[in-house]
Amino acid sequence: MPSRDSRWGKILSFVSAGALCGVLVAGLFLPATAVAGTTVSNSIGMFDRLPDDLDMSAPPAASTVLANDGSVIATFYAENRAPVTLDKMSPFIRDGIVAIEDARFYQHGGIDTTGILRAIVATAQGGRQGASTITQQYVNNMIIESLVQQGKGDQVKLGYAKTIGDKLREMKLAIALETKYSKGQILQGYLNIVYFGNGAYGIDAAAEEYFNVPASALTLPEAAALAGVVNSPVYYDPLTEPDHVVARRNEVLDKMLQQGRITASEHDAAVEAPIGLNVHPSSQGCFGAATAPYFCDYVQRLILDDPAFGADEAARKKLLYLGGLTIHTTLDPALQKVAQEQVDASLPAADPLQRGSSLVSVQPGTGKVLTMAQNTVYNPATAPGNYMGNFALPEKDANGQPLDGAGGFQIGSTMKPFIFAEWLNAGKSMATQLDGSVRVYRAGYPWKNSCGVTTGSYDPALGQTPLPNDDPNHYYPMSVLQGLYQSINTITFQSAAQLDFCNIQKMATAAGVTNGHTNQPYDLSSIANLIGTQDVAPLTMANAYATFAAKGVHCDPIALDSVTGPHGRNYPVPGADCRQAIDPNVAAGVTYALKNVLTRGSGYNIPVTKSHDIFAKTGTTDGNTMTWTVGATSGISTASWFGSYQGIGPRWVNQNITINGKYYAAVDGADIAGGQWGHLMDAAAQQFPAAPFALPPASMLG
């Protein structure tokens, strides 16, 4: 039999509970001055100054990077969340969350006075029982999200850390919320913001994470399990505490049955069902890219470097990870798949040889980047083949902002078409015969450069080697045209000797050729640079050749089609700034000449369909360390590179070497680089058809 003191204690607890409830109600509806001087007055006064409405905008959401067909490349998020409308949520989760968290959700006006009284009595008697409605929980979550977004995460209060004033604040805001929004809007907002553990925020992310289905497809047992998780995502963790989850799920099912939300047969079948996890861990950023991680990194840098997306990089990063952007890009996923297969086949990333391979394509006349593939693994961990630099890109953009690019590679003879272009631009004929046997250029040779100084020599008197060609059989007079398509260094130098180096540099600059490290114009202060001793990025080369293919129209490369915010805001993206940069007749002369490379020149053995207008130029540097094929049709321009990305020197010479089981006395630009270029160009032929190139005027043909 209970003692007299025990009975009086319970009575006193009840009276105290009632008094406390009165204080709460008074604090809720009376002005702060009515309780001035109490310990809660400051909290209440601070609360009364808050607005009576809340921001019902979508919570922080992931940004999605899309290919040009709408397929997902990657997502960026600080919180894995994909807000969906209520009609995209299974009715089982809507009913299950109400049944277990707030059975009177559709009856109360934001706070549940019955629940409050019950919780106060339980607390006074030494127990514990929650009293927060779904509306209050929603308010609490929005307050937390707001603080986190403002960088004030240290001010977040949880559980017992909250004062009575904090509780009153949440209660009044819940009442205000109910006066402005429907129950459906509140439930939708709550299910999109609440945490389900393991990085999953909101019901759609949770459904994908644990069951690999959208929120709309959740079955009754799945929905009941997730409804139970929100009470304590750690204790009811589906991955580590499945027994706890099943017990809580069955409790949810019991509540749903008691409240008439499901039938007895539905209840019994769900209780007997296994938990049925189909875990699909989320991955974000370029590390989790479904395709083209290096292109993804390029897109990320474009966002982080552009003031249109925020005042500084920190603001832009916040927008990217929290702003729910939809980023439509120019990448062609079908062609990217081919490009990736080709570079992977050239040499596996982890092969002990540790050579690099790259393919990058742009569309002439638009500047759209269509492919960007390389054979390394996008991973910062130290391991063979792991590499974070982007082979295709220069180190910096035109504004000096970082691009995470490798900075390019020596381009070898792929530089020669720009010298040839200036030859034609100067009014000379490609049929002009020059002496290919000239190999000595003495110190002090009078190279013409009207905007600078060009130096350098091939002078045996100074102990220098005479100018070499790639093979010993072409030291004889020939046309400038033959010198180009057979890639004869001595003819290139003979033509340059009749030109102004300043104008050669202007021609290369007009096509967009820049130093891959400095983003400055390609330097012709040294005669050695006539045959490509400077580093240029593959994207730069693909785009420069696209200028020839587009009848001399140069477009800046672009990777972004559009960027849209969650409320329909359109952010400005860089334009291609297409302009006539080279005389169309000069461009026609270059494409005419370079078609010969594939039929009777240095790229005759490249495996590519030659039944339509297509041109290319090969390039190989000293020691065959860097090898290239760059070329285009009117529909697509591609730069292909194979070589060393870890340095130059004896270790990286590609001579007397076996690659993928095939022995090479010397790897030429037409070999591995040419092979992967040809396969990609053939794959692109139907989607990006080749229109015939215009013929140059007769005066150029001679």
TrEMBL record:
Pfam families: Transgly, Transpeptidase
Key word Ribosomal protein present: no
Domain Glycosyl transferase family per the UniProt entry, residue ranges: 70-256
InterPro entries linked to this entry: Beta-lactam/transpept-like (IPR012338), Glyco_trans_51 (IPR001264), Glycosyltr_51/Transpeptidase (IPR050396), Lysozyme-like_dom_sf (IPR023346), PBP_transglycosylase (IPR036950), PCN-bd_Tpept (IPR001460)
Segment forming the signal sequence: none
Catalytic function, reaction form: Preferential cleavage: (Ac)2-L-Lys-D-Ala-|-D-Ala. Also transpeptidation of peptidyl-alanyl moieties that are N-acyl substituents of D-alanine; [GlcNAc-(1->4)-Mur2Ac(oyl-L-Ala-gamma-D-Glu-L-Lys-D-Ala-D-Ala)](n)-di-trans,octa-cis-undecaprenyl diphosphate + beta-D-GlcNAc-(1->4)-Mur2Ac(oyl-L-Ala-gamma-D-Glu-L-Lys-D-Ala-D-Ala)-di-trans,octa-cis-undecaprenyl diphosphate = [GlcNAc-(1->4)-Mur2Ac(oyl-L-Ala-gamma-D-Glu-L-Lys-D-Ala-D-Ala)](n+1)-di-trans,octa-cis-undecaprenyl diphosphate + di-trans,octa-cis-undecaprenyl diphosphate + H(+)
Domain of life, source organism: Bacteria
Penicillin-binding protein transpeptidase domain location: 359-652
Protein name (record): Transglycosylase domain-containing protein
